[in-house]
Write the structure tokens for this entry.
Amino acid sequence: MRKSLRSLALAVLTGGALAMAGAAAQAKVEGDTIILGSAISFTGKYSTNGVHAQKGYDLAIERINAMGGVEVNGKSYKLAVQYYDDESTPARGAQLAERLINQDGVKYILGPYSSGLTKAIAPVTEKYKIPMVEAEGASRSLFTQGYRYLFAVLSTSEQYLASSIDLAAEIAQQNGKQPSDVRIAMAFENDPFSLDVRQGVVDDAARYGMQIVIDDKLPRDLSDMSATLTKVRALKPDLLVVSGHSKGAATAARQLAELKIDTPMVAMTHCEAAAIVSKFGASTEGILCPTQWAETLSYEDGYFGTAAEFDAAFKERYPEYQETGVPYQSAQAAAAVLVWKEAFERAQSFDTEALRDALATTDLNTFYGGIKFSEAGNNIAKPMVLRQVQDGKLNVVAPSKWASHPVSHPRMAP
Amino acid sequence: MLANLDLLFQAPILNVQLLLDGLLIGAVFALSAYGLALVWGVMNVKNLAQGDFVIMGGYIAYSLSELGVHPIVGLPVAAVGMFAFGWIIYKVIISRVVHKDLFTSLLATFGLSLLLQQLLNLVYGPDVRTADSGFAVRNLFGGFVTVADIKLVSFGLAALLAVGVVVFMKKSRMGQAIRATAQDPRAARVLGIDTERVYAFTYALNAAICGAAGVLVSMIWVIQPFYGIGFSIRSFVIVTAAGLGNLPGVIISGLGLGVLEQFAAFILGAELQIFTVVSALLLVLIWRQIEQARQRQVVR
């Protein structure tokens, strides 16, 4: 008696499990809603930017749904996102990606925040052949692995400081010197993203034949670069580039003023994240800051209008950003959702392979910039834009096609 | 590396800048290690949350500056606040791991460290913060050497605190009680010293000193909930090099560490800073082993 009960229970459980597995294999479309999935950093050290990105995703989804949603095979579908908190930990992110794909049956992934987390999740989505459109992982090494299901809307890391090298060459020529006369000092943190940025600078400098006189790494824990800046004072380079996330920017901005460094051109990443203008005031005049997107650029699309209109819409939806401004992390997240929407409508299908091919042939203009993916999956249609702190504001100064103000050179000594 | 060494010889004034920076920075490290020497020597508790106490002090100064108060006021506020906090932590956690084996006290304080980091992250977020002291920067030697006034102030305060603690340990009743308990807790108890109170006081004093150091850190550099580990590591290096309970030794070790780090960063590059520090510790320990081996041979 007991034995047959046990085997009955086993049969029911097995049948149930098989049925669930079968259900998971189908596309995650519930009724008239397409479910996208995302593991993103709501807590931990990336939480600030993780939340910026999530708000960008949500705003785009609201806008698309309000405009009639996604049309596939004559029927209108709304978009929704299933979120999980990856706690800023790569291992957890990979776990959650597996859970989204296997347990929740999600077939369409939006990327996490940071290259580290994207690197952890990409092998998972690649293994299950699930397309992922990401907007916050800029590391070049993501696109050298031969991933077919990874697509990124943002400019990759080696482009971050590249335009500052071009600008230095341009200014040298204006002053009657050769680009190869330019002497560069570099200070980078010893982590994958910053080292990618460094590689971009090294490659660009080599193109012009420029000399690199200082090549220092910033210590990861203690935020003191006075030894490097002492060297800068001794060797007097023409250009100083610094990249060490917001800690590096805050440290550099403070210590440049403290040690009274008068290098004529200084470029650093993460100026906005570190809020150097509001924190360190007048001493940051003339510092160059690369950015993925600015609300003053003249990009435009049919969903949000111009970049400035996206800026206004974002501030209206999330009033807390009215003082701080809209971060580019939110803009690029919104763009990623637009890419998905367009892909669904071009493929006219929910099949992941058809969607993957549709994503690969993306070629559209958005309020965030042009989006066109290379073979490797990175966006080759949008340049990194350079802004300069001028009178306490950040103005676009390069590339000249998008510049709204002329560059001010040399930087005034603080 | 050789090019950097060459620079030092060609422009000797750079040595002055590095030495000065090293001493000023080392003073802050010495301060954060001070309390650890006490806690380790008296209670045999290896406080892995040392750096997190420092960061907490820094956040107190940051919060004050957000309210419009000058962060230097944070020094007494952080000292008192962290003293109370340290007392509570002792009563709740540390009192259970005093004089237990190595693993237990490490585990307890490690857990405390994790808890503090995550709490700070929840309250303040993971972005780096700094408190602006508004002090000037002075130029010396015709502009070749710059010194930020805040670093001079912190050096002075660190010196004051160090002298204060040494005097306290020698002259006051509680200081005597602490030294007695460190020498032999059972005998101290027999003679009527409330060792529990002594332990609580020592741990709270450690937290207070760390808090004060943290205020200075937030004004000189930047703080972030997860930066405590850097200060914990350096504190352990300093105390190990100086020897337990050797307070003047901690000062000298701390200053030496600061100078060594600056020169290492200049000559070898900033990524080898911690490597140099830990290698120096290794050499100190090997030297001590050789010295003591000789002594043991004589006794035999």
Q: What stands out?
A: Chain A touches chain B through 38 residues (CB under 8 Å). Chain A has a mean pLDDT of 88.
